[in-house]
Amino acid sequence: MAKLQLKNLNKTYSPKVVPVKDISLDVSEGEFLTLLGPSGCGKSTTLRLIAGLEQPTRGEIRIGDRNVTSLRPGDRDIAMVFQSYALYPHMTVYENMASGLKLRKISSHEINRLVMEVAASLGLTELVDRKPGKLSGGQRQRVALGRALVRQPEVFLLDEPLSNLDALLREKVRAELKQLFSSQKAPVVYVTHDQTEAMTLSTKVAVLNSGNVQQLDPPHLIYNRPANLFVAGFVGSPQMNLLELKCQGNSAMLGNFKVLLPNLTTVPPEIVLGIRPEHVCFAGEDAGNMQARPTIQDVGTRKLPAPEAIQGEVYLVENLGMQNLVSVRVKGLESVTVRLLLPNDRLWNSEIVELVFWPQFLHWFDVKTGDRLQ
Questions:
Q1: Strand, helix or coil at 10?
Q2: N or C terminus of the chain with fewer C-beta within 10 Å?
Q3: pTM for the structure as a whole
Q4: Average pLDDT over residues 124-135
């Protein structure tokens, strides 16, 4: 199988409209890369450039040892799954899946073998004689996937394939996709704005914003070590608490409380502290955020002293069933969000609580550049 390489890929429509800015990426055999970002970040344009549906202003696209930058889509040996399914309404499931193979003049015997093998793997065997109008949304999406899989291309491209499905069906098809592509060796490039899809499906995630790659890493590093403020704020639901604090000596001032800074070459006058809601807990809490309990394994052989409790006032409690989101005002700040993994029905608005921020869960960012400081 081939390796996909993007080298300084750029797409410029006008001096003010540059959706893709010198993106360089490698997707190796067996890798599943997700392009993740908000609307307008350049992820779909990047996918269209790889597919050959648009030509780059500059840069190079390589599949294996071939430079495919100027080749037509049909000559690139890629298979693409669209958001809209793009099935032929007058054709059966079998005919839709076989259409690309017929254009390549493959024998009818081989077409039948490939289509029926893929149909069986997708649970479509009983549906091969139906037309798209007789199928559910999930079934149509599987047919679109099947049409790509029978091609056995060098690269798979998927453009937000689950966005038209309802929440429950999206979860089911997402699990099917993960199983399906775990057995495929061809590189996969997947576009989505849904971070759950990105985190669960990918071996690598490229977070894009304004045409630039903000971070390229495995999902666990995207979540646990965001490279900058954009990634920290975009990845995670509920959003990471990002608190702009003044510095005093070797501490950041959180209201009237001090939070010890990491070892920095120069201490700036202001700094941004980030901490995820599941890593904030209430002082003395016995059955709340178990993830926020540091252990010897978390911190190596060095025993961490417990940080000071920070006092605040509860002003909103959101019961989400398996968890509560609690919004707390700390003096001098807008709010801190706490996620309780075990709901607590005893919390009330205006109640005074004490919050604990464990040092190993803190993220520090530069106020001006937004870059991670540790």
A1: strand
A2: C
A3: 0.87
A4: 93
The lowest-confidence range among 3-12, 94-103, 203-212, 334-343 is 334-343
> Residue 61 and residue 5: Cα distance in Å, rounded?
6
What is the C-alpha separation between 195 and 19, in angstroms, rounded?
20
Q: What is the CATH number of domain 4-234?
A: 3.40.50.300
CA angle 238, 329, 321 (to 5 degrees): 40
For residue 176, the tally of other CB atoms under 10 A from its CB is: 16
Kindly indicate whether the domain formed by 241-365 is annotated with CATH number 2.40.50.140. Answer: yes
Q: pLDDT tens digits, residue range 15-61?
A: 999 999 999 999 999 999 999 999 999 999 999 999 999 999 999 99
Taking residues 309-321, what's their average pLDDT? 87
Return d(Cα 258, Cα 278) in angstroms, integer: 21
Burial class (CB in 10 A: 0-12, 13-18, 19+), 1: middle
Provide the token pair at 161: 């394939």
Q: What does 33-48 look like in DSSP terms, one character per residue?
A: EEEE-STTSSHHHHHH
Q: Are 296 and 347 in contact (CB under 8 A)?
A: no
For the chain, helix, strand, coil in percent to 5 are 30, 30, 40
Which tens digit of pLDDT belongs to each residue from 271-285? 999 999 999 988 865
Neighbours of 231 (CB within 10 A): 24
Q: Where are the domains of the chain?
A: 4-234, 241-365
- What phi, psi does 314 have (nearest 5°)? -70, 130
Which has more confidence, 192 or 171?
A: 192
